[in-house]
Amino acid sequence: MTKTxxxxxxxxxxxxxxxxxxxxxAHGVQGECKDCWRVYDAEHRMYLNGKRVNKTHPLWKxxxxxxxxxxxxxxxxxxxxxxxxxxVVSNKAWQGWYKVGKAVKSEDRLNNYQTSSPHRDYVLEYQxxxxxxxxxxxxxxxxxxxxxxxxxxxxxxxxxxxxxETIQEVKYINARSAKEVTKTMDETIEGFSxxxxxxxx
Length: 201
Description:
The chain is α+β, with helices and mostly antiparallel strands. It has three domains: 41 residues, no CATH class; 35 residues, no CATH class; 92 residues. It is 43% helix and 26% strand. The chain has six helices and twelve strands. A hairpin with a 5-residue loop joins strand 8 and strand 9. Helix 5 packs across helix 6.
């Protein structure tokens, strides 16, 4: 006789094979049937290219998506978070040319490019994380335009090393600026504390 179980959600009796396995449960399966679990999954979980995204992610949105661009518009993405990557991609169809762009996740943007190529031949050459990907990309583009004579929008015809070193330079400058701001704030707070202590006396 086929073992059955009543779904905790819909109340319908199903064969136990119609429940996802879960060794922590009394019957070794989920309390909800597969139909109810799929509904819950669609309404309460986010998957990006097959990988589950934590609810704490600023771009979390229930559903299954191939890329973040499928879940949000570029404007919405920019409004929700400024952290992310500046990346470099290439395609063998345009030897010597490299695209320098920005994205919340470089791999996600790469997948988006691949959909436009029947050969899926875009390559992620390099990536660097920044607290503000928008400002970083702008600075990097400005530096590259002063170094590289041949360029068009976000594409640059040069050696990859020139681009990666420029990105690293901007990363270093940003880190140094952040330290200087922190130091200034610490000195201001320390000065205020000493002044306050003097007044209290």
